[in-house]
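Justification of computing resources. Each target in the renewal requires a structure prediction run like the one illustrated here; the chain below, 309 residues long, is used simply to show the kind of job we budget for.
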Amino acid sequence: MDIVTIAILVFMGVGLVVYSLFARRGDQREAVKRRLDGRRMVDETAAIKTKAHESATKGLVKKAAPVLSRIVMPASDEEQSQLHVKLTQAGYRAPQAQTIFLASKTAVLVLGAVVGAVVGVSLGYDIKGMAACVMFAGGAGFIAPGMWLGSVTKSRMEKVCHGLPDILDLLVVSVESGLALDTALKRVGEEMALVHPEVAEEFRIATMETQMGIPRSESLDNMASRVGVDEVRSLVSVIAQAERFGTSVAKALRNQGNAMRTKRRQQAEERAQKTAVKLMIPLVMFIFPAMGVVLAGPAGLRLMEAFSS
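Resulting structure tokens:
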């Protein structure tokens, strides 16, 4: 074989090797592409199903909530405003919160009436007894959501009162370190989100309102009205007075934090003093009768035996 033939054979061999490598890579790329396309199709299908389910649920709630809420809809604008304030103080600020609450109130009322009717039928009551069961269960179902809302509101207010002194300490440190009050409020809202999320959320909302162009005093007043706690109103008034008269904001916040801690300590002492009075009821009703039976029982039995003999 001459040199030309050897060169041609070598060139053809190298070409076949290169072609096989590129063809294999192309097949691998096609396989990977098909897998990715399949995963994307699966993900898109799951996302479409999830969106369809959420849209259907939202549509059902939007259609059913106005119908169910008509039965218990507040008659006047003042009552609607009071309900909106209660929901806001409980932490429910969605646009549909009032409608959903009224709808749930109606639904629980109807459910309670149905349960009362079932209980009346199962116990064999007559028409009057069944009507009494239905009215009692329906009334309990009508009152239950309001009691639940009051409990949630009270719990949130207690959490705000408990976390406010710690928030004020961090706010004092931030202001004394050189931060402006708006920046300090924002920083405190970010740092205390895990420890006291209720107070941190209110501070973040007030900061966002200030960034949107609302005056700081107005945003703080909105925060006080949203929370509904006297300590927050006092804090807002202290900050407003300190800015108005040009006094030290950090000193005013420190004094306010110390006053809140003193008030919380006094409330704890008051609760401790009430404990002794509250313990009298179970003592008189349960413990004293049992002790009387144990102490006077043998003597009573001996007296009965003596009189019988």
